[in-house]
Design goal:
binds nickel (II) ion; 7-stranded mixed β-sheet; Aminopeptidase; alpha+beta; 15 strands; 4-stranded antiparallel β-sheet; 391 residues; Alpha-Beta Plaits; elongated
């Protein structure tokens, strides 16, 4: 089986599908048409997709059953888009107000490409390849829901990959160790006393208190945490006030925490509450965390055998030089929930190419990929599955 050649031949199909899905993004837990189209694409290959109504999730799965009995390997692509207004100027840019700014359109098309190659070569397949088109990755809802629906039943191993701007095209990264972080969301409310903008002494300025809290929260990272322990606290949204000459009595903000440290799961909300409540008190205000939730656990490639199969798959296809190292990422991925249940490995497909202007990070309104890498991503999916089953 020469998946490098097969992927070359399938490239037109993969790019065509990528552009279709790119032009028609849907938000997490709203992937109605996306799911319908994936089902249609899979049926065209003679596959019989199953859906996940029982767990209130879109997306689908399908099995490619090989001619010879064997193990089952799962390949996963996530399918949801983001509430980002696209500014790429691409001829197939989305116009519906949301965007595949995280590149999940590429994941769908790469997995469809792999599905096409594998389903056309079922006679040479020993075992079953399960294709998982997962909804709602961005909200962390998708993977746990699909696990409840039984997508991992009978699965011996799982592989997934993310197209990623930090990595140069057309390299693939599969390496052992910490890959993506635990991710939490948190929400804080600050309460002061509103007053006229000309009389600050008559009130308690919620904006001043909130500003101080946001600045002090960084001491959680710099003073309460070891410098050797990766930790990120970022505030992404603040809200306060109604007009220029009123000091508001209420303010709120929200943000995220990223870590690989299991102790932090309990520690982070405790330390942050201390900083938040006491900083507010220093200003005569009160403040509290109204919600703190860990969305995903970390992605850690700790299965040596699967890391080896993944790396060898890339080497077989594109030589040693097809692989590139990449630092641990503080982004989160709900793929970690699959890895908690069955042996798994997670890779990255490089999409960064300054020569063609592909310089924007994932989630940016101008995020775009070097489409030359899509065939590689598809080939690695297929080769990984084939090799795992062959062993
Ligand atoms: Ni993503």
């Amino acid at each position: 089986m020469n998946f490098r050649e097969l992927a070359e031949k399938t490239e037109g199909y993969i790019i065509d599908r990528r552009r279709y899905y790119h032009a028609n993004p849907e938000l997490s837990q709203q992937e109605v048409n996306t799911t319908a189209q994936i089902i249609a694409d899979l049926k065209e290959m003679g596959l019989e997709p199953k859906t996940f109504e029982s767990v209130d999730a879109y997306g689908c799965m399908a099995d490619i059953v090989g001619a010879m009995p064997g193990k089952t390997v799962a390949l996963r692509a996530d399918i949801d888009a983001l509430p980002v207004c696209e500014e790429t100027g691409l001829p197939f840019a989305s116009i519906n107000g949301c965007m595949h700014a995280c590149g999940h359109d590429c994941h769908i098309s790469m997995l469809l490409g792999a599905a096409k190659m594998l389903s056309e070569n079922k006679d040479k397949l020993k075992g079953t390849v399960r294709l998982i088109f997962q909804p709602a990755e961005e909200t962390g809802y998708g993977a746990p829901a699909l696990i409840r629906a039984g997508v991992l039943d009978g699965v011996d191993a799982i592989y997934g990959a993310h197209i990623w701007n930090v990595l140069e095209a057309p390299y693939v990264n599969i390496e052992a160790g910490n890959r993506m972080a635990s991710t939490a969301e948190f929400y804080v409310e600050v309460e002061g006393l509103s007053t006229h903008g000309s009389s600050p002494e008559a009130g308690i300025d919620a904006i001043a208190a909130m500003s101080a809290i946001i600045m002090n929260l960084q001491t959680f990272v710099s003073r309460n945490n070891s410098p050797l322990n990766p930790l990120v606290v970022s505030v992404g949204k603040v809200e306060a006030g109604t007009r220029w000459n009123t000091i508001p009595g209420k303010a709120k903000f929200e943000g995220t925490v990223r870590t690989f440290d299991k102790n932090m799961l309990e520690e982070a909300p405790k330390v942050m509450s201390r900083i938040i409540e006491n900083t507010a008190a220093a200003y005569g205000a009160t403040a509290k965390i109204t919600k703190f939730r860990w969305l995903v656990i970390p992605v850690i490639n700790d299965n040596e055998n699967l890391v080896r199969i993944g790396q060898n798959a890339v080497k077989k296809l594109y030589g040693e030089e097809g692989l590139a190292p990449m630092m641990t990422q503080m982004g989160g991925e709900d793929f970690s929930f699959y890895m908690e249940k069955v042996p798994g490995v997670f890779g990255f497909i490089g999409s960064h190419n300054p020569e063609t202007g592909k310089i924007y990070s994932n989630h940016h309104e101008k995020y775009d990929v070097d489409e030359d890498v899509l065939k590689r991503g598809a080939a690695v999916y297929a080769q990984f599955a084939y090799d795992f089953l062959a062993e």
